[in-house]
Amino acid sequence: MNIAFWSEEDGCGTTSGMAAIASVCSNAWKMKTILMQSINQKGDLRKKLEASPLGDAVFEDDPYYAFGGLDYLLWQEKNKRLNEAMVERTMVPIGKRGLHYLPSGEGKWRFGGFDAKGQKEAMRRIIELAERLSDLTFIDCGSGRDEWSDYLLLQADVVVVNFSQERMALDAYLKNSHGFRGKSVYLINRYSQESIYNKANLGRIYRPQEDIAVIPHNPYFCHAGDKGRLERFIHRHIRGGIFDQQFYFMQELLHTAAVILRAVGAAF
């Protein structure tokens, strides 16, 4: 099952939100989940997860470059050798609970040797193999619309549209149709219940067809992400009781993950 995360503008917390939801799926429901970023992204996902740029190894050499991560898989697809074992070999485990990261590589050999159609077909093949190896595949499509993000959004089973809790951003998202193929879920990152644009008022003002989910603003969660300890933060608090200071945050995060899984038709 392929779930794409996207935002119309920068700074919406898309990458952190995606990693947190994936971590919940692996920690709470033991789902094998693969995280990856589109080839037009900067590879900043790894900074949230204590993962190295290439994972544990560089797999393939040519006379000029050493290939690892997504570069390695694209190289293998170019040479008609790509298979499930290669994708599995490239994945980096995060913690011990079923969460994996597919490194972006160094970007040394990203577009070379492919025309536009070949690039998309190569990514489609990689995503297809990742889906075979996992319960869920999460893809960070970044922000804005370009040829690559449009392609990946159209391939997704569910699109999680991220936005901030500001009037202009809300108007831009909720009053316009984005034309995604499958079901959409709206996700407000850094959510504040005290805002005039809380969930209850959003439902009355915009009457969206899609579900609205939230990840509350939490400085401890932000700090954990900045330090590369996001998965550890989720694991530590996922089963905390009502006296855990992160209880409200984790309950909202669990609810958000459940909304997304129901949208994609996953059993959990």
Set out the fold topology:
Blueprint: E1 2-7, H1 14-29, E2 33-37, H2 45-48, E3 60-61, E4 66-67, H3 69-78, H4 84-90, E5 92-94, E6 99-101, H5 116-132, E7 136-143, H6 147-155, E8 158-163, H7 167-174, E9 183-191, H8 199-206, E10 211-216, H9 219-226, H10 230-237, H11 247-264
Helix pairs in contact: 1-10, 1-11, 3-5, 9-10
Q: Can you put this structure into words, describing what you see?
A:
The structure is a single chain. With 268 residues, the protein is of the alpha/beta class. The chain has helices spanning 14-29, 45-48, 69-78, 84-90, 116-132, 147-155, 167-174, 199-206, 219-226, 230-237, 247-264, and strands at residues 2-7, 33-37, 60-61, 66-67, 92-94, 99-101, 136-143, 158-163, 183-191, 211-216. The strands form 2 sheets. An 8-stranded mixed sheet has the order 5-6-2-7-1-8-9-10, sandwiched between helices. A two-stranded antiparallel sheet has the order 3-4. Helix 1 packs across helix 11 and helix 3 crosses helix 5. The longest helix has 18 residues, at 247-264.
Short description:
This protein is of the alpha/beta class and 268 residues long. Helices cover 42% and strands 19% of the residues.
Characteristic terms for this protein:
two-stranded antiparallel ribbon; 11 helices; globular; 10 strands; 268 residues; single chain; alpha/beta; 42% helix; eight-stranded mixed beta sheet
